[in-house]
Design goal:
- The complex is a heterodimer of chains A (236) and B (358).
- Chain A is α/β, with parallel strands linked by helices and 236 residues long.
- Chain A is built from six helices and nine strands, in the order βββαβαβαβββαβαα.
- Chain B folds into two domains: 171 residues, Nucleotidyltransferase, domain 5 (2-Layer Sandwich), CATH 3.30.420; 172 residues, 2-Layer Sandwich (Nucleotidyltransferase, domain 5), CATH 3.30.420.
- Helices cover 43% and strands 18% of the residues of chain B.
- In chain B, helix 2 packs parallel to helix 3 and helix 6 packs across helix 8.
- Classes of the chains: A alpha/beta (236), B alpha/beta (358).
- Chain A: One of its GO terms (molecular function) is transferase activity.
- Chain A: Keywords: Transferase.
- Chain A: This is tRNA (Adenosine(37)-N6)-threonylcarbamoyltransferase complex dimerization subunit type 1 TsaB.
């Protein structure tokens, strides 16, 4: 079983070929921390990973991608590529959350602790998801204020992980950080993808934006009108 | 050769398959377009983030449909073409990444197509028009005259220094409380209006320039409308008719001038004027262009409306022409928000303009 995992959700532009047989899983990963410019670099990173693993894209049996939360453009780069791979090969696609991937790493670093995965979402907000001591999600990813996220972490006695962790510790100095990473390793994402594959959770991946598009509906015509409208006109 | 074409640069998600035969003639095997009109209508214009979100949800399904309608699979393709700009960058990235993925899996040549080149080469697909010809591209994003001298040989003769013509229609419709998109709404209202009631300006109507300017016209229309508040339906119709009359006069004048200049430059006895873009479907504009062509003894070609507005077939066709000429792109190719057709054109800036649009 050969799987390709792709992550362009945050600062990293990464790809991993994960191979599983009777003896276990081996992962061949390539990636760069670039911040932006994922659309130009991704195919070269994928080519480096597949070449190093000695496989072609046509041999890959499932494609996994991080769907967010993260940079809107970054999410679309990875999701468009993986949906293109799935379409072009007829193979299934799998969606992995950026927060659940971070939580998986926190669970390894601090076993037995509940976890709050937090990513900086700007505007004094964070993307946040909590997990129990067994690593199972307690809620869905959401946007929250830093204050609310800090309160949640205190209530759960959770360790923090992700780029939103430091500002929250600044609010609640008793809280602990499970690790320094701002994003999960592509190897972690690949391992989660196997679990999802085994569960048969095949999807058309969709970016998990968690915020609506920044646009306001047109309220009214700017002109004062005397009479009712004709057909074909729109009045708010 | 068979080329898959992908277009996602604005608010249409589109995929098509085009066949180019050995003689260089084209045939559309499939052409599917999903218009996001309804998604943007409440906002009175295209919202880039909404468009990008829709493209990523819709595109793979549309590609599958296009291949199905063409009755072929990926293995039957000779190349994958996608719009790489200019346009709304979030959407362009979605189409380009999808094309890269398909090209990588099937080891197909990738053709990163300039959206404007797609419009520019469409008459060769629909009407087998030979080089050289004069293109007037009039849409929500562009208003420009381009001398199309050969594949990759485009000379911009004039462009708008502020708003695109389609943008002027949309803003007029928005001001008057008409539906989006503005072109058809303004045209409908103008039908019962008096084009002589409001004396609106004809900006930049000078013989020394093929550039357009529409922002002053838009402002004049707003002032005229505000002076009549509260406006009744007849006033709205008269405003639309007066606006369209001004646009028609400008377009007729500029097209005549452009055809004369094009004939002088090329020596073509019967210069061909090709109109493309959504505004080319406006009948008043079409009439003005026909009059301009007749005035100089030229020929007007307007592709069918479906191929005037954004579509995948024009991208596939431009890709086919490029592939036939050996022009292939690498998988690192970048999506570009701004990408003038004549690569080295300097940005055109009108007064009070914040940045170049094309």
């Amino acid at each position: 079983m050969i799987l390709l995992a792709v992550d362009t959700a945050l600062a990293a532009c990464s790809a991993a070929v994960a191979h599983r047989d009777g003896e276990g899983v081996s992962v061949t990963a390539r990636g760069e921390v670039i911040g932006r410019g994922h659309a130009e670099r991704l195919m070269a990173v994928i080519a480096a990973a597949t070449e190093a693993a000695g496989v072609t894209l046509a041999e890959v049996e499932a494609f996994a991608v991080t769907v967010g939360p993260g940079s809107f453009t970054g999410l679309r780069v990875g999701v468009a590529a993986v949906r293109g791979f799935a379409l072009a090969t007829g193979r299934p696609a799998l969606a992995i959350g950026t927060l659940e991937a971070l939580a998986a790493e926190a669970a390894l670093a601090r076993p037995g602790r509940s976890i709050l995965a937090v990513l900086d979402a700007r505007k004094d907000e964070v993307y946040v998801q909590s997990f129990d001591a067994a690593g199972a999600p307690l809620d869905a990813p959401a946007v929250a204020t830093r204050t609310a996220a800090a309160a949640r972490a205190v209530a759960l006695d959770a360790v923090l992980i992700g780029s939103g962790a430091l500002p929250i510790v600044a609010l609640e100095p008793r809280l602990e950080i499970a690790g320094p990473q701002d994003f999960a390793a592509i190897e972690t994402i690949a391992h989660l993808a196997f679990a999802r594959f085994d569960a048969g959770a095949f999807v058309s991946p969709r970016p998990l934006y968690l915020r609506p598009p920044d646009a306001k509906p047109q309220t009214a015509a700017r002109l004062a009108r005397l009479t009712p409208t004709r057909p074909g006109e729109v009045r708010a | 050769m068979r080329i898959l074409g992908i277009e996602t640069s604005c608010d249409e998600t589109a995929a098509a398959v085009v066949l180019r035969d050995a003689e260089g003639r084209g045939r559309i095997l499939a052409d599917v377009v999903h218009s996001q009109l309804a998604d943007h209508a409440p906002f009175g214009g295209v919202v880039p983030e909404i468009a990008a979100r829709a493209h990523v949800d819709l595109l793979d399904g549309l590609i599958a449909r296009a291949l199905d309608e063409a009755g072929i699979g990926f293995a039957d393709l000779d190349g994958v073409a996608a719009t790489a700009g200019p346009g709304l960058i979030g959407g362009v990235i979605v189409g380009l990444m999808t094309a890269k993925a398909i090209a990588a899996v099937h080891r197909l040549p990738l053709l990163a197509v300039n959206h404007l080149e797609g419009h520019a080469l469409t008459p060769r697909l629909t009407d087998a028009v030979a080089y050289p010809y004069l293109l007037l591209l009039i849409s929500g994003g562009h208003s420009q005259f381009v001398a199309v001298e050969g594949l990759g040989r485009y000379r911009r003769l004039g462009t708008t220094v502020d708003d695109a013509l389609g943008e002027a229609f949309d803003k007029t419709a928005k001001l008057l409380g008409l539906s989006y998109p503005g072109g058809p709404a303004v045209e409908r209202m103008a039908a019962t209006g008096d084009p002589a009631r409001f004396d609106l300006p004809r900006p930049l109507m000078r013989r020394d320039s093929l550039d357009f300017s529409f922002s002053g016209l838009k402002t004049a229309l707003r002032l005229a409308a505000e002076a009549c508040q509260p406006v009744d339906d007849q006033t709205v119709a008269d405003l639309c008719a007066s606006f369209q009359a001004a646009v028609g006069d400008v377009v007729r004048f500029k097209a005549t001038l452009a055809l004369e200049r094009f004939r002088r430059d090329t020596g073509e006895a019967v210069p061909i004027l090709v109109a493309a873009g959504g505004v080319a479907a406006n009948r008043a504009v079409g009439r003005a262009l026909a009059e301009a062509a007749a005035a100089v003894g030229g020929r007007l070609v307007i592709p069918p409306p479906k191929l005037c507005t954004d579509n995948g077939a024009m991208i596939a066709w431009a890709g086919a022409e490029r592939l036939a000429a050996g022009l292939v792109d690498g998988l690192e190719v970048q999506a570009r928000a701004r990408w003038p057709l004549d690569g080295d054109a300097a940005p055109k800036l009108g007064s009070g303009q914040w940045g170049a649009k094309a």
